[in-house]
Amino acid sequence: MNSPQAGGSGSTRLAELLELRDEVRRGPDAKATEAQHAKGKLTARERIGLLLDEGSFHEVEPLRRHRATGFGLENRRPYTDGVVVGWGTVHGRRVFTYAHDFRIFGGALGEAHAQKIHKIMDMALAAGAPLVSLNDGAGARIQEGVTALAGYGGIFRRNTRASGVIPQISVMLGPCAGGAAYSPALTDFVFMVRGTSQMFITGPDVVQAVTGEEISQDGLGGADVHSAVSGVSHFVHDDEETCLEEVRYLLSLLPSNNRELPPCLPAGDPPDRRCDVLRDLVPADGNRPYDMRQVIGEVVDDGEFMEVHERWAANVICALARIDGHVVGLVANQPQSLAGVLDIHASEKAARFVQLCDAFGIPLVTLLDVPGFLPGVGQEHDGIIRHGAKLLYAYCNATVPRIQLILRKAYGGAYIVMDSRSIGADLSYAWPTNEIAVMGAEGAANVIFRREIAASDDPARTRAQKIKEYRSELMHPYYAAERGLVDDVIDPAETRGVLAAALGVLRAKHADLPVRKHGNPPM
User: Fold this and answer.
1) Distance (Å, rounded) from C-alpha 130 to C-alpha 188?
2) Among residues 324, 477, 508, 521, which one has the fewest Cβ atoms lying within 10 Å of its Cβ?
3) What is the DSSP letter of 3?
4) 172 and 246 part of one domain
5) Would you tell me how many other CB atoms lie within 10 Å of the CB of residue 18?
6) DSSP string covering 464-490, please?
7) What element of type H or E holds 170?
8) 181 touches 155 (CB < 8 A)
9) TM segments (predicted)?
10) Which residues fall within 8 angstroms of residue 312, CB to CB, at 6 or more apart?
11) In a domain, 4, yes or no
């Protein structure tokens, strides 16, 4: 459609407006839409339609066009400038969103494009509502030069300002290269779709030119790489429809902002429901693995929970769920992976999750079965001290209700770091199978009684006796409870009821941090 003409009657102007709106909704020619669908990708408006409640979308600046000249841009001035922005509702709650339109300039960001995003980000922060970005763009618009780069800087600054104030979710539905990848990295959650979304700072061609390594786009920065190897992506899905439905579910578990509590739903699952299966689920033998997800499924409402970073650092589980209708964050060691030890990646994963829950008023329940930190030269040289301190700092700094539950092993520094009473947990419970100690009985006996064992006529027998002695003296189930470091030793079948009651009494908890600009956490 040509630019609107001056003059004309009111009815002519109205007809012109309706035609213009229709053109904006259609977007570029049908071939561009067909090409998008041929790649297994939806259009920007189709994606927004799946994200938001039907009929709730209110678009902002649909008639915006760029003012750039040169390289033929003055002759190509499509409406929206390649990004659709606005607000709507998800399950009846207000959400702001922007969606790149790959059909226009490949979704590349120019000055006008960036200003639209800046506006909707500012509106989301002012309104105290979540922001969801639907990313499918080719990075900065090269023809606009430094103004495009400045546009990204404005996005990054707003991401940082909104951090911990409103939930920010990035949904990767196409390419995201160069500096553009840093906006998703600054947000709370990143979703990716297999086969169509990639993220990298330097693409395969640059990698090959500089290092000689040959790799595909998916191999370098695809969904599976970022969900299982780099940890950049929190969730990965096979198609856009499933992905966006999961985004809606995640939003149902989050508050609108840091001044509100997460939405509470009526609980159809009785809070005091017994969990008799837990009595036999966890083997008393500390060397036998089990699936901690089964424990979580027994404890939370209706067995439903949303695991974050499921495929990365699998030796620790981070999940959102409900107990008695109220949202909680769960951090748990996973004995099925690396025996549940803490290592660099697990520490980073759990620290970020604890920080997120604390920022948005989500109570924390920590389930322990941890034999310690992973030993090894590689871990030490790569900074396990620094990375483990991230988790320690996150817990110590958290002011939300915090409950610790010790199922089995709780050894050494890992016991302290996993929200022990000594670093501020409000309540600590343990099962009768708990073993809280500086280290395992075998290792402790070797250190404490090494001379006696070495001097013995039967070292093996003496060692076995000393191990038994150490267990009976320092590792019996009630040792920590006798010293006030565990509030109670409970029947595993009563776990759900105990947690529900504890969370209920802590719901009114209020704690103030010292006055300061901010702390200086380990990075």
Assistant:
1) 11
2) 508
3) P
4) yes
5) 10
6) HHHHHHHHHHH-STTHHHHTTSSSEE-
7) strand 168-172
8) no
9) none
10) 227, 228, 229, 230, 231, 345, 349
11) no
One domain, residues 65 and 108: yes
Q: Which of 409, 402, 417 is nearest to 487 (CA)?
A: 402
Same domain, 167 and 70: yes
50 neighbors 245 (Cβ within 8 angstroms): yes
* Rounded distance between C-alpha atoms, residue 298 and residue 300, angstroms: 6
Cβ 289 vs Cβ 339: under 8 Å: yes
Domain assignment of residue 467, given as a range: 440-476
Question: Which residue type, as a one-letter code, is found at position 464?
Answer: A
Catalogue the active-site residues: 178-179, 413-414
User: For residue 207, what are its two tokens?
Assistant: 């990698």
Site of tokens 């003409």: 5
Residue 271's CB is within 10 A of a number of other CB atoms, namely 17
CATH number at residue 353: 3.90.226.10
DSSP 8-state class, residue 457: S
Is there a contact between 137 and 176 (Cβ–Cβ < 8 Å)?
Answer: yes
Assess whether 211 and 342 both reside in one domain. Answer: no
Of 307, 189, 192, 175, which Cα lies nearest the Cα of 238?
A: 192
Q: How many domains does the chain have?
A: 3
Residues 83 and 135 sit within 8 Å (Cβ to Cβ) = no
The rounded distance, in Å, linking the Cα atoms of 239 and 251 is: 19
Which two tokens mark 15? 């007809």
Domain annotation covers residue 498: yes
Query: Cα–Cα distance between 183 and 168 in angstroms, integer?
Result: 10
> What does the DSSP 8-state code read for residue 435?
E
- Averages of pLDDT over runs of 10 residues in the chain (523 residues) are 60 86 83 90 95 97 80 76 94 97 84 93 98 89 82 94 98 88 95 94 89 92 95 96 98 97 92 95 90 98 97 98 98 97 97 98 97 95 96 96 96 94 96 84 73 80 77 75 92 97 94 88 90
Report residue 104 as tokens: 């226009």
91: phi > 0 → left, psi -120 to 50 → alpha, else beta; which? left
Please give the Cα distance from 351 to 331 (Å, whole number).
10
Q: What are phi and psi of 201, to 5 degrees?
A: -80, -45
